[in-house]
Amino acid sequence: MELEKYKIEAHNDDALQTHNRRLAFVAAEVENAEAIIQKLVDFQVAIPSWALGTGGTRFGRFSGGGEPRNLEEKIADIGLLHALNKSSGAISLHIPWDIPENTTNIKALAAQYGIQFDAMNSNTFQDQPGQELSYKFGSMQHVDKAVRQQAIDHNIEVIKYGQALGSNSLTVWLSDGSCFPGQLNFRKAFQNTLESLQQVYAALPADWKMFVEYKAFEPNFYSTTVGDWGQSYLYASKLGDQAYTLVDLGHHLPNANIEQIVALLLMEGKLGGFHFNDSKYGDDDLTVGSIKPYQLFLIFNELVEGMDAKGMNHATDLGWMIDASHNVKDPLEDLLQSVEAIMITYAQALLVDRKKLAAAQADNDVVTAQEVLQQAFRTDVRALVAEARLRSGGALQPLALYRSADIRAQLIKQRGAKTVATGL
Ligand code: AOS
Ligand code: ZN
Ligand code: ZN
Ligand code: ZN
Fold first, then answer.
1. How far is the CA of 76 from the centre of ligand 3 (A)?
2. Residue 55 — very low, low, confident or very high, per pLDDT cuts 50/70/90?
3. Which of 128, 160, 209, 295 has a C-alpha 20 to 30 A away from that of 201?
4. Residue 106 burial (10 A CB sphere; 0-12, 13-18, 19+)
5. What is the pLDDT of residues 18-46, one digit of tens each?
6. What average pLDDT is seen over the chain?
7. Which strand (E) or helix (H) includes residue 408?
8. Is the CB–ligand 1 distance for residue 213 below 6 Å?
9. pLDDT of residue 422
10. Which InterPro entries does its entry note (predicted)?
11. What are phi and psi of 342, to 5 degrees?
């Protein structure tokens, strides 16, 4: 379904007076309001195709209805999000969950919604129907060369789909590892994985990037062969200039200092992309900013500082994506909340008084340093984010409009109450 333009305009007319009052207040409070709004206009966050269904756990799925039944409907869902917030202009596909039957048609459809193709994701963590060899004991690390070759071939096939669609990056997340001590020879598993990744890397087009995602545990519970940023960094360094580390916020052991990891990877020119989510205990999958918003702010603070130091373009030089999927919310509402949290936090990081912070650091003035950060974090920037949306033709309050326009009810009417989107 499409969200008609007049509905957005009517919604904005109703909300405009309140918005203008809030905007005037924050614009008077902060120095660089105009510059921040422009940066927010430019910033886009990719939506993963597998977040559009109610998913999240391997124990059970409880579909809310109206879920996209195919790739076309997934693109339509992201088109809706993008019409509402103008910051979700990209989709990240997962092969084989999203095999495009006709890449030309899919590309044209996405273009109609103003949506680009972000990183392509391969899948060697599930066995697919008709697949010759099993990934039960790993894919790229496998002791059997034939299994490794199958995983390599699959990744190269994913690159080909991506090329046809106009993507320019491949994310490799491997669930490879072991569940019990003694199961694996760590060195051999690393070497096999490296050699497999090298084969894929060799097939990478010259203008593509390869992201090596790491994860501390799950589905393997004793060791993971790309288990932390050190291991990912080793692979990425050995592979070459087109390979980067991808940080998924939910893939660390509890209390890891993710902002420091991000700062150092950026410094080394090896930070490639992000999977945003939030978590309380283990893996990802909760709405961005729902549990640890201050941690997210500290991460964005390092991103802005580090990217500026290198003269990088915030909007284009890293891959920004949401990777979350759980059981209880309407996925589209959840994604609107996640994108909003990302935009708010990005705006707050842009507020940080860098000169004052550097002076405080040089003086060992710990109190002032903390004050500078928290001054930014405690500023209500929501009107700046809303203004960026307004200027781009989006809705002042996307979530409110999504509800008042009864979008889920219409999707259920159109697609049925029992649809289940492919994904986890
Ligand atoms: C898995 O935990 C990772 O976050 C990957 O990014 C994965 O490809 C994605 O979540 C879909 O399962
Ligand atoms: Zn991820
Ligand atoms: Zn994950
Ligand atoms: Zn996950």
1. 24
2. low
3. 128
4. buried
5. 999 999 999 999 999 999 999 999 999 99
6. 96
7. helix 407-415
8. yes
9. 65
10. L-rhamnose_isomerase, Xyl_isomerase-like_sf, Xyl_isomerase-like_TIM-brl
11. -65, -45
Determine the Cα–Cα distance for residues 388 and 86; give it in Å rounded to an integer.
9
170: nearest Cα among 185, 186, 158, 184: 158
Q: Do residues 396 and 15 touch, judged by C-beta distance below 8 A? A: yes
Backbone angles phi, psi at 170, to 5 degrees: -120, 125
pLDDT at 170 over 80: yes
Span from the CA of 408 to the centroid of ligand 4 (angstroms): 24
* Domain boundary assignment for the chain: 5-415
pLDDT reading at 56 higher than 90: no
pLDDT tens for residues 333-373?
Answer: 999 999 999 999 999 999 999 999 999 999 999 999 999 99
Exposed/middle/buried for residue 130 (C-beta within 10 Å: 0-12, 13-18, 19+): exposed
Which pair of tokens denotes residue 376?
């930014």
- Say if CB 211 and CB 253 are below 8 A apart: no
What pTM was computed for the model?
0.97
Instruction: Tell me, using a 6 A CB cutoff, whether residue 285 lines ligand 1.
Output: no
What would the pLDDT profile of 80-107 be if each residue is shown by its tens digit? 999 999 999 999 999 999 999 999 999 9
| Closest CA relative to residue 208, chosen from 172, 235, 179 | 172
In the CATH hierarchy, which fold is given to the domain comprising 5-415? TIM Barrel (3.20.20)
Q: What is the pLDDT of residue 418?
A: 80
For ligand 1, what atom is nearest to the CA of residue 213? 6
- Tokens 């932390």 sit on residue: 228
Q: Per DSSP, what are the bridge partners of residue 211?
A: 171, 244
Q: CA-to-CA distance for 296 and 406, rounded, in angstroms? A: 31
Distance from C-alpha of 189 to C-alpha of 226, rounded to nearest angstrom: 10
Atom of ligand 1 nearest to the CA of 424: 12
Count of alpha carbons within 13 angstroms of residue 78, beta-carbon side:
33
* 3-class DSSP assignment, residue 349: helix
- Is residue 318 within 8 Å of 310, Cβ to Cβ? no
User: What was the ipTM of the complex prediction?
Assistant: 0.95
Distance from the CA of 33 to the center of ligand 2, in angstroms? 33
247: nearest Cα among 258, 255, 231, 234: 258
Other beta carbons within 10 angstroms of residue 147's beta carbon come to 23
- pLDDT, tens only, 181-203: 999 999 999 999 999 999 999 99
Closest CA to 68 of 334, 337, 331: 331
